Amino acid sequence: MPNYTVKVKWNKETFTNVVVNTDESVLEFKAQLFTLSCVPVERQKIMCAGKTLKDDEWNIPLKNGAVILLLGTSEEISVAPVEKTKFIEDMTESELAQAIELPPGLVNLGNTCYLNAVVQCLRSVPELRECLKEFKQEAGFAAPQSITLAMKGVFEQMERSATVTPIMLLQTLHAVFPQFAQTGEKGTYRQQDANECWVELLKMLQQKLPTRNSESSTTSYPSFIEQFFGGTFDCSMKCTESEDEEPSKSKENFLQLSCFINQEVKYMHSGLRLRLNEQITKRSSLLERDAIYTKQSLISRLPAYLTINFVRFQYKGKEGINAKVLKDIKFPLEFDAFDLCSPELQQKLIPMRTKFKEIEDAAVLEKDQIKMKGEKVEEKKTRALQYYFDEDLGSNNSGFYTLQAVLTHQGRSSSSGHYVGWVRHKGDQWHKFDDDTVTPVASDEILRLSGGGDWHVAYLLLYGPKICNEPIEEGKEETTPMSVD
C-alpha cells in the first residue's frame, strides 16, 4: 500500500507534511502522532472525511494533502478521589506496580518484545547510559549513527516518562536491518531473535561510541563497546594427528560468551567450558589433507560487563524453524570466571581477590565478636574500590561478577513466543520488564528462569563487576574515586 503526505489538525495546532505509511499498523501511526502532540495512544480519536479510524485497519479515505483531525487531550485526566485506602499487602500485582515508583516500560508495537527486552537489559549499564547521553549528532545519516541516535533518544525518553513508545528506534532498526521488518500473512511483524538484535545493536554502537578515558589508563580500544563489553581469548591450536606439527597460537576478541548445551551440561559453568576446549577439522599444511585439531582457549582479558548467550535454539530443517532446547541449566547470581582465565591473567586477578577475602573474613569475625558480647551490629560506612585495572579502564580486576540483567524467552521457537527483560534494582530486588508492564520481583524468581519447562527461560545473561566495599575507619576521610572522562 502507498504512503501519503497529510496535514494533521489538533486543537489549534496543525502538523504539516506528516507521512502515513499504510504498510505499517495503525498503532504505529498513533505512536507517530504521540511524538508530535503528546496525546497518549489510548486517548487518540482520528477522523478523516467524517470517518473514524479503527485500530486494526486503514478504513479512512487517504490521499496526498488530506486533512486528518486528531481528538484527545495531552493533559492528565483527573481521577476521582479514592474512597478507601488499600494497603500493599491487599494489592494485586498490577496495583502494586502502580503504587510503587517503578522504571519505565516500553510499548509493544507488534511482536517487538525482543527489542524492548534488549533495550531494558542494555540500559542497566550506567556507563553506557552516560556514553549515549554525551553522544553528539554528526553530519550524514549512516546506519551506525542512525541506530546510535535512536538508542540515545529512547534512553532520554525513559528518563522522563513512565511508559515509552519506541517507534523511532523500531523504524530505524527496520530501515537498517530489513530482516527485522518481516511481516506475516496478516501484515503483522514477525517475532525476531533477541540475541540477533542484541548483536546487531552492539555492532552499530561499536562504530560510533568513543572510548572512556581515565588518568592512569594506557590501554586503547576502538570504541566504548570493546572497552566495557569486549574480552580476549588466548588460543592454542594443536593437530592431534601429527606430533611434528607445531601448535599455533593466536588471539581472538569476543563480545559475548556462549554456553553450549548437551545431555551432560547441567550448569552454566560447564557449558562455558565446552567453548574453551573444542575439536575442529581443518586442512593441515604438513599432512596436506584435512585433519582434526584441538583448540584450547583461555580468557586473557575480562570485560567489566560479561554477556553470556545460552545456545538454546537449534535449526530443524524439516520444520524450517529454530527449535528451542528447554533443558534446565542452572546459573549463579554471582559468577567467578577465574578458572576460565589464562595463568597470566589469573596472577593479575589475585591481589583484588585477596582484598575481597580479607574484607569478607574481617566482617564475619567482627560480627561474631559483637554478637558474643550481646551488642547490636551496626553498619559501617564503606567506599567502593575500583573494579578495573589502573591501566585498563573497562576491564575486571577480580574475576568476580554479579548478575545484573537476564533476557528470557517463553515459547518453543525463536520465531514465536515472548521475550521479557529482568533487571536488578538493588540487593535482592529486581524489576520484571514485560513490555510496558513493570513489576518488582525477588532474586528467587530470577533463579527460576533456568529452564526445564514452558516458563520464561534464560537466553541472555549480563553480568556486571562485583564491587568490593571497603570499610572506612573512623577519623579517616573517604578518598575520591578516580575520575573518568
List keywords for this structure.
485 residues, alpha+beta, eight-stranded mixed β-sheet, five-stranded mixed β-sheet, 23 strands
Task: Lay out the secondary structure.
Blueprint: E1 3-10, E2 13-21, H1 26-37, E3 45-48, E4 51-52, E5 67-71, H2 93-99, E6 105-106, H3 113-122, H4 126-134, H5 143-160, E7 163-164, H6 167-176, H7 194-206, H8 224-229, E8 231-239, E9 248-254, E10 257-259, H9 268-276, E11 277-284, E12 289-301, E13 306-310, E14 313-316, E15 321-324, E16 334-336, H10 343-372, E17 382-384, E18 400-410, E19 418-426, E20 429-434, E21 437-442, H11 443-447, E22 457-465, E23 469-471
Parallel strand pairs: 1-5, 6-7, 10-13
Antiparallel strand pairs: 1-2, 3-4, 3-5, 8-9, 8-12, 11-12, 13-22, 14-15, 16-18, 17-23, 18-19, 18-22, 19-20, 20-21
Give a summary of the structure in a few sentences.
It contains eleven helices and 23 strands.
Beta-strand level of the residues, as a percent range?
25-35%
Which consecutive residue ranges, at least 5 long each, have pLDDT under 50? 478-485
Helix content: 25-40%
The biggest sheet amounts to: 8 strands, mixed
What Rg is obtained from the alpha carbons, in whole angstroms?
A: 26 Å
The overall pLDDT average reads 87
Q: Choose one word for the global shape.
A: globular
Tally of DSSP β-strands: 23
Distance between the termini: 49 Å
Please count the helical segments: 11
- Strand pairing plus helix content: what structural class? alpha+beta
